Amino acid sequence: MPAPLRIGLAGLGTVGIGVVKIVQSHADLIAARAGRPVEITAVSARDPQKNRDADLSTYHWEADPVALARRNDIDVFVEVMGGHEGPARLATEAAIATGKDIVTANKALLAHHGHALALAAEAAGRVIRFEAAVAGGIPVIKTLTEGLAGNQMRRVMGVMNGTCNYILTRMQAAGLPYETVFEEARQLGYLEADPNLDVGGIDAGHKLSLLAAIAFGTRVSFDNVELEGIGNVSIDDINLADDMGYHIKLLGVAQMTGRGLEQRMTPCLVPAESPLGQLQGGTNMVVLEGDSVGQIVMRGAGAGAGPTASAVMADVIDIARGTRLSTFGRPAASLAEPVAAKSATPAPYYLRMTLLDKPGALAKIATALGEAGISIDQMRQLNQPNEADNKATVLIVTHKASPADVAYALAQFDTTGVLIGAPAAIRIEEV
Ligand SMILES: NC(=O)C1=CN([C@@H]2O[C@H](COP(=O)(O)OP(=O)(O)OC[C@H]3O[C@@H](n4cnc5c(N)ncnc54)[C@H](OP(=O)(O)O)[C@@H]3O)[C@@H](O)[C@H]2O)C=CC1
Ligand SMILES: N[C@@H](CCO)C(=O)O
Asked: Which residues of this UniProt protein bind L-homoserine (predicted)?
């Protein structure tokens, strides 16, 4: 039997213990598929006393993940600690410098330092694999890097944060406001230690920036992802959008345009009957569009011990088999510095506003839209039961408009004297 592939595992939390369980329970299956055994040699975590619901007694313990990374009895450094600075970054750099391949679930690390790490790894003849970092158990990195390698990618899209999708779909199903469901998600343990990583769109933005790098051959450019979280999505908008045949999703979209690379992670309306519109709960969905293949839709668990460890092990087994791929699907030195598109591609918009219910009010809004060069596709006035007689809720769906024109129109609404409160404007994505 060929020599085993030896893992140094940094992190024994949700994902790390998931990895331990697969290595221990599927040893024969993995050896048969990889052509050699895969073993864990040494592990690291903060607290050596913690009960971790797994037998770790045969593994060497390293208090310092950097020391683990430097050990000469490991071949692959598996980093499942998290964080884009500190131990995760230092240990990954140390592992590359001492000749280890890297498998990581850490999207934050790669979104911030992916290009430099890929250059260092490739200069050292090492590989970095990160299937688990994007959409958990969905094998989207492999699909994009290998399965679609012959395509010019047109667009990558997706719902890549399960917590946000849980919150939005639960609001809709139970008719509850954002704050109540956010608290529920906290109680259920769905939220990251810093919840803004989830509900602020940052975690999903990290993932989108990694997909964009592979799809468009550009350096990871997280700073250029337009980010807007779900904190301002109201139950009223969810219900009104539903009445019009749309669901609201925190949707990531990346595409190369004539104006540069467009990367957005923002709340969007999508058709309720589309695959993205149908996505319920904490599930993820990634949609890939290539010139030859057309559209591919992948759906599955985006988080959790089993699904995420499944993705980590796919990378480990590839390394055990001898598969050597560039981090982002082509040599890092050949990745282009992306030019960021200054504004998003025009799209129809959903506008919701409360107006004084008096003669000429709607005409003023229509005029403001016209002056912004925006054409109205549909318009509805609603008699909301909780509104006084002199107020009306108005919904408008526009024809395609640029974000700048929509912003100009909203500013003009403010000057009409008929607007009550702040209007909502949400992009409608063609999916
Ligand atoms: N959980 C999920 O479903 C998913 C997670 N990921 C990513 O996987 C990574 C791990 O996530 P998850 O398992 O949930 O995180 P956890 O918080 O559950 O576990 C983190 C682990 O890292 C250890 N750790 C943290 N800091 C240090 C340090 N300085 N030195 C040594 N060990 C340290 C912790 O030690 P101790 O236990 O002693 O505190 C813990 O074992 C993150 O990058 C995350 O974004 C990606 C996809 C899904
Ligand atoms: N917080 C993330 C975990 C996986 O990255 C989510 O909710 O999808």
From this structure: 192
